[in-house]
């Protein structure tokens, strides 16, 4: 019984939110429909009456708009009040009553056209209410009855058979709309309940962690290697501090989640024995930051947690910086120096949370968000970091089956020469998930981390080759540029896959251009060079994308025999300032090393002119065209003024 009452309150509060969130589109549609109906069939007999009806309807709609604005500006707690439901219902049902009044009052003067139009509008308004008012079944049902039944009954009372039929249809339609509203309301309730359960699931995580901690409690309170608190002992001591805060015996505290960057490499290259000695040395340094007020433990592996009984932001930041500096100093092991970095995530009680387990989780999230960034090694938790982490997890799960669900597609952006002729297209991957376009900047790294980039990359390459074959039937010589991840190069079957696609779609090898980023220069050069040479023997061209934004080596470019360099858009956007010197330098180098230059990110005519003056042969960017869907790219190519002879 108590559970049902709780669910009932939940449905009511969430239903109010849903009603008001959907109200403005419904009000706008009502205003447009009422204006059209009132002023389309007006004549001298009913001019004043219809004008008065329209004015009253407009007044009601304006008051509903003001009511919606008041709801939006109200506090989160106040938004779920039952009074808002009453106010919304009154405004909504008054609107429905006005529709019925129109049908009943003006019916004697209806022409066949106005009768038909009125019935259509009333049916449309009732149909729209099925979804817009789905947050409250009773309101949706009354709305449908008020708006449809008076007109239906009036028609049933007429002598003409077709009007009787229309009235009968109106009654049936009313019942159908009520049934549809019930189904929509049931679905909404299930969605609200699911959201409620997910919210409760998060709150139960703390209790679950606490139970698991008690189950695995160890007899010893010390970590056997470092002599610091182990996890279970630290949690017990930290819970005492938490309880002191709840009893107002301290003003708050901070949790530091400390992770050693690069420690795995020590174990892998120098051995676990050296790794253990490094941990002991770093633990000794951490002990120097401990006083009677602070707690520290080895959380696991190369992770440490520090509890500081000080919630001053400046003091916390200063301490974190000192810890990072201390842990980053070289360690002497077996006549050699070992240097690691540390990343620290910080959560503060009570600003972020008061539960120890939750604070640790939040500090972990902050650390994870900052890991690998330099020189900033310290991060305070904020809500955005947690949202980002949850989103990454959600997208990573969705990516597992995105290819099977056919959610990926390719778009194509033209590359032109200095005459404006299309010479190539770059194939760009797009992912539409749950009616949203997910940025490649967001999902490509997730695919690379999971290794799914290999399978998906092969699909991208095949789709691009298929499109290239179609394009060359229309305009021989067009090239296709396809982005390749470094992880794909490590795939043993990569070269064979490329060769099979070239043969399957009968593509001249020199028309396929593979784009890599500068990260390729930090990899196994012997393996990379071997695969690049194998594909270049087949005619395949290679481009370096986003050149100048990361690690780059002109000697490596020369050794790899790179065909094209794409100057990053950041330099093009800054071309009227310092970027021009970089572009000119790249052109000079390209002549010496025998590669061509493509400028990407061209957005203005001024940029185009400056690039042409520098002698840049190929241009790409929104100035010429945004990325196009496949069919649009084919049409774009079809409409090109001049045929292409040799492409890029």
Automatic annotation (TrEMBL):
* Residues that span the membrane, as ranges: 20-39, 51-72, 84-108, 120-143, 164-182
Q: Does the keyword Transport apply?
A: no
- Tagged with keyword Cell membrane: no
A molecular-function term among this protein's GO annotations: lyase activity
Q: Name one Pfam family in it.
A: GGDEF
Query: Which classification does the entry list for the species?
Result: Bacteria, Pseudomonadati, Pseudomonadota, Gammaproteobacteria, Enterobacterales
Q: What is its EC number?
A: 4.6.-.-
Domain EAL stretches: 392-641
The protein depicted here goes by the name: Diguanylate cyclase/phosphodiesterase
Q: Which residues form the GGDEF domain?
A: 251-383
Q: Which UniProt keywords apply?
A: Lyase, Membrane, Transmembrane, Transmembrane helix
Q: Which organism is it from?
A: Buttiauxella agrestis ATCC 33320
């Amino acid at each position: 019984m108590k559970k049902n009452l709780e669910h009932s309150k939940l449905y009511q509060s969430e239903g109010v939110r849903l009603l008001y969130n959907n109200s403005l589109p419904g009000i706008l549609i009502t205003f447009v429909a009422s204006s059209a109906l009132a002023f389309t069939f007006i004549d001298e007999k009913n001019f004043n009456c219809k004008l008065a009806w329209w004015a009253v309807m407009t007044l009601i709609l304006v008051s509903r708009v003001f009511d919606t604005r008041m709801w939006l500006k109200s506090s989160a707690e106040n938004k779920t009040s039952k009074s808002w439901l009453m106010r919304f219902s009154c405004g909504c049902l008054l609107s429905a009553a006005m529709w019925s009044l129109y049908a009943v009052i003006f019916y004697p003067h209806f022409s066949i056209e106005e009768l038909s139009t009125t019935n259509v509008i009333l049916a449309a308004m009732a149909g729209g209410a099925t979804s817009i008012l789905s947050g409250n079944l009773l309101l949706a049902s009354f709305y449908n009855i008020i708006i449809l039944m008076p007109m239906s009954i009036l028609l049933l009372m007429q002598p003409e058979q077709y009007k009787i039929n229309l009235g009968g249809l109106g009654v049936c339609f009313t019942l159908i709309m009520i049934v549809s509203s019930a189904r929509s309301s049931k679905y909404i309730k299930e969605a609200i309940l699911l959201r409620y359960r997910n919210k409760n699931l998060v709150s139960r995580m703390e209790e679950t962690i606490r139970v698991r901690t008690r189950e695995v409690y160890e007899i010893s309170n010390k970590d056997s290697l470092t002599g610091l608190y182990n996890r279970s002992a630290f949690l017990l001591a930290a819970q005492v501090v938490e309880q002191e805060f709840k009893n107002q015996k301290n003003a708050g505290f901070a949790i530091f989640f400390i992770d050693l960057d690069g420690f795995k490499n020590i174990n892998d290259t120098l051995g676990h024995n050296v790794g253990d000695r490094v941990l002991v040395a770093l633990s000794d340094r951490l002990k120097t930051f401990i006083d009677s007020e602070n707690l520290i433990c080895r959380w696991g592996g190369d992770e440490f947690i520090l509890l500081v009984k000080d919630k001053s932001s400046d003091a916390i930041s200063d301490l974190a910086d000192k810890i990072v500096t201390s842990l980053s100093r070289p360690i002497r092991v077996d006549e050699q120096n070992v240097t690691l970095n540390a990343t620290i995530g910080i959560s503060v009680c009570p600003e972020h949370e008061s539960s120890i387990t939750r604070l640790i989780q939040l500090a972990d999230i902050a650390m994870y968000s900052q890991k690998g960034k330099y020189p900033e090694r310290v991060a305070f938790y904020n809500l955005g970091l947690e949202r980002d982490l949850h989103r990454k997890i959600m997208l990573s799960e969705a990516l597992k089956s995105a290819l099977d669900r056919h959610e990926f597609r390719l778009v194509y952006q033209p590359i032109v020469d200095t005459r404006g002729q299309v010479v190539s297209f770059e194939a760009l991957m797009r992912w539409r998930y749950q009616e949203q376009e997910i940025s490649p900047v967001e999902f490509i790294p997730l695919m690379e981390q999971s290794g799914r980039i290999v399978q998906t990359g092969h699909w991208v390459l095949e789709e691009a080759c298929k499109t290239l074959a179609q394009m060359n039937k229309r305009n021989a010589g067009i090239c296709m540029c396809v982005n390749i991840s470094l992880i794909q190069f490590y795939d043993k079957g990569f070269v064979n896959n490329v060769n099979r696609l070239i043969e399957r779609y009968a593509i001249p090898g020199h028309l396929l251009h593979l784009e890599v980023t500068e990260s390729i220069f930090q990899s196994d050069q012997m393996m990379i060079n071997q695969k690049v040479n194998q594909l270049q023997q087949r005619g395949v061209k290679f481009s370096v994308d986003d050149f100048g934004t990361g690690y780059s080596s002109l000697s490596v470019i020369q050794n790899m025999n790179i065909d094209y360099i794409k100057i990053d858009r950041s330099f093009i956007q800054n071309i009227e300032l310092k970027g021009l010197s970089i572009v000119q330098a790249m052109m000079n180098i390209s002549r010496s090393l025998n590669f061509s230059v493509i400028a990407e990110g061209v957005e203005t005519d001024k940029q185009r002119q400056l690039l042409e003056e520098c002698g840049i042969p190929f241009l790409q960017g929104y100035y010429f065209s945004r990325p196009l869907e496949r069919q649009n790219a084919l049409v774009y190519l079809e409409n090109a003024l001049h045929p292409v002879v040799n492409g890029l």
